[in-house]
């Protein structure tokens, strides 16, 4: 298959990763936020209310997070094609099951299943293939994939879901049932086109360079240049330097990992809460619910445009500070300019913060700890982020229930973000062994 494709197969892999982002988006907050109002009023779910629904979704994120650490072990047991096909089929089935839920326990269990097999297994299994096809240009390719994924997963599919969902009753069920059936096709495409192995297994070089010489002596002679090709161009990211080959255990015992991780988790939690509760935020400033999708479009487009930020900032730890400041600015803008225009500006700032976190999530761990164990370090970070990303969703809901507004919670989270930005600017730097 690789030889029959007229373009470098790594480009196909990049497209498949973007498609995988689209497939798993029904489990993500930007799709769940579309139907959350309808879920609250659903008689079959017992009219749970915003606080209960928020808590259930946060618990689903928490319970499913450890599975993200297991996908590499799963790939050691079954082929990538098999894992993608199985997890994709289960994800489609989970969408159908979600349409049949009745009661809060079944809702939480199905949400947990979606997180397990979608963001927990399917997407990481496909994304991992990028490592086997791209090296020197991986940063640019990852940024392009993240931007395309934001366009598809945050904008295209939520728009389709929004168009087929009403604000009350159980019409959200038919929408998710249709998604469960429709997603079978892209799951099949990804499973069919994804191949085992990487560029070297097909006598190709990473990044689409000239093919490796097929004769063993020449291949041996070329080995050092292959390692050289895997070195990042940026001198700030000499990831294969022997002195920088950090293991996962060594990274987890260094304060740099936890300083970066706390900031990463904080930004994701703030963005998730903003998107999840955006309809209520609109009501508070007098905007009609029909504008909800336009608000999400602002977040998605801002995210897409800011994702490549990591390519232009040499000191990657500064990306953490930028993301925190953008998130804090987004919250404070809405608190102190509680108008429709303030909400639109806030949406763009929150989207930019999310885009910057997407950008640095692909480069920050290699920059800090080298490439030796970067993938396991990255997946550990994603698992922690997933486990904590529902915390602000719940906090927003509690604030709304207790004091009738989100503003006190938004002020508190903005202060946390600003404090973390100050700490990062003083204490966070690229670690040394």
What would your notes on this structure say?
This is Major facilitator superfamily (MFS) profile domain-containing protein. Keywords: Membrane, Transmembrane, Transmembrane helix. GO terms for molecular function: transmembrane transporter activity. The longest helix has 26 residues, at 138-163. Helices cover 70% and strands 0% of the residues. Mean pLDDT is 85; it is low at 214-240. The chain has helices at residues 9-24, 29-41, 50-64, 71-77, 80-98, 104-127, 138-163, 171-182, 184-193, 216-229, 248-252, 255-276, 278-284, 292-306, 317-336, 340-361, 364-369, 374-388, 391-403, 407-427. Helix 3 (50-64) crosses helix 6 and helix 15 (317-336) runs antiparallel to helix 16 (340-361). It folds into two domains: 1-196, Growth Hormone, Chain: A (Up-down Bundle), CATH 1.20.1250; 239-433, Up-down Bundle (Growth Hormone, Chain: A), CATH 1.20.1250.20. The chain contains 20 helices and no strands. It is an all-alpha fold and 433 residues long.
CATH level-4 homologous superfamily of the largest domain: MFS general substrate transporter like domains
- The total of beta strands comes to 0
| Rg from Cα | 22 Å
Number of domains: 2
| Percentage of residues in strands | under 5%
State the share of residues found in helices, binned by percent.
55-70%
**Any idea what the shape is?**
globular
- Low-pLDDT segments: 214-240
Helix count?
20
N- and C-termini, Cα separation: 43 Å
Element order: H for helix, E for strand: HHHHHHHHHHHHHHHHHHHH
Mean pLDDT: 85
Determine the structural class based on helices, strands and strand pairing: mainly alpha
CATH topology of the largest domain: Growth Hormone, Chain: A
User: Biggest sheet: strands, sense, closure?
Assistant: none
CATH class of the largest domain: Mainly Alpha
CATH architecture of the largest domain: Up-down Bundle
